[in-house]
Write a structure and sequence with these properties.
By secondary structure, the chain is of the alpha/beta class. It contains 11 helices and 10 strands. About 35% of the residues lie in helices and about 15% in strands.
């Protein structure tokens, strides 16, 4: 076992077992991300924050060894495509913060050409873009973007998977302004992100890998959020028909009720009840919170 300072990084070996990344690399990434976190949260100039975003991700991707997705390899995003198949079918899709493109590659493989619209991925780092005839990737800012950059006037669906938590709070409004420039009226927005109450879920887990909100995220997760925060925010922006899904992404996606869409108020009630939340935090196995859930929202732009 690697010799690291376990008094400083008590969760490093557990996180290494979860991710398959050596604890030394995780600690190296954490120290880079922690410095970025402090700088970007304190930076008042939007352009300077953009520069910081552009600098940190190539650094940490190199540390983690991230590579373009292989179209022929097992795809971890397959369950999400099956989960959202009814929303994706026949729709033009923009994935904001597409990373290595795994989700869009899965859409292209699982849906016949006649059952899908144009697929476009936007990400700040083009180094991880794969090459695929049915998916177009665009390098650009995920906070400020416009239709002309994407080569399309509007989209039926915007998909955002673990992106919002990587933006500083002061950039959230500009990010949603950009989404609304390219999402047609009546179009759907799908948001997935970690729930802060079961965090941290970034590399800060080298400090605490219990998923019980004892330590705030200090890496590239700048704003892990909750249903109780995001539902009112989206409603203020004019989104309607807010729904979530079963099973919560991460559970098996082949259960009969995976197509259900229901109100997020049940998760909001859990978040706002200290007793219910405390009970969920106490459901543990090998020291880890096992009853946690993320934030998954489907919303219609009015």
């Amino acid at each position: 076992m690697s010799r690291i300072d376990e008094s400083r990084y008590p969760g490093a070996h557990e996180l290494a077992r979860e991710t398959g990344i050596a604890p030394e690399r995780l600690i190296e990434a954490f120290e880079v991300e922690q410095e970025f976190h402090a700088q970007v949260m304190a930076e008042k100039d939007p352009a300077a924050r953009r520069a910081l975003y552009g600098e940190v991700y190539p650094k940490v991707h190199a540390i983690y060894g991230q590579r373009p997705a292989d179209p022929d390899a097992p795809n971890p995003k397959d369950p999400f495509v099956r989960l959202f198949a009814r929303e994706l079918k026949g729709k033009s899709v923009l994935e904001v913060g597409c990373g290595a493109g795994a989700f869009l590659l899965s859409v292209a493989r699982q849906l016949d050409a006649s059952d899908r619209g144009e697929l476009v991925g936007l990400d700040v780092s083009e180094a991880s873009f794969p090459s695929h005839p049915s998916v177009r990737f665009v390098a650009g800012d995920v906070i400020e973007f416009r239709p002309e950059q994407l080569g399309r006037e509007d989209f039926d669906l915007v998909y955002s998977d673990n992106v919002l938590e990587h933006l500083a709070p002061q950039d959230r409004d500009a990010h949603f302004d950009s989404i609304e420039r390219v999402l047609r009226p009546g179009g759907r927005l799908i948001l997935l992100l970690p729930n802060r109450l079961f965090g941290p879920t970034d590399v800060t887990r080298v400090l605490d890998c219990s998923y019980s909100n004892r330590v705030p995220s200090q890496g590239t997760h700048l704003t892990e959020s909750t249903y109780s925060e995001l539902v009112p925010y989206l409603r203020r922006r004019g989104y309607t028909k807010l729904r979530t899904v079963l099973p919560v992404p991460g559970l098996k996606d082949r259960l009969p009720f995976r197509h259900l869409r229901f109100s997020p108020r049940w998760f909001q009630a859990i978040e706002q009840s200290p007793r219910a939340l405390g009970l969920m935090h106490r459901v543990r196995w090998k020291g880890k919170c096992m009853a946690r859930f993320g934030v998954t929202l489907l919303a219609t732009r009015s």
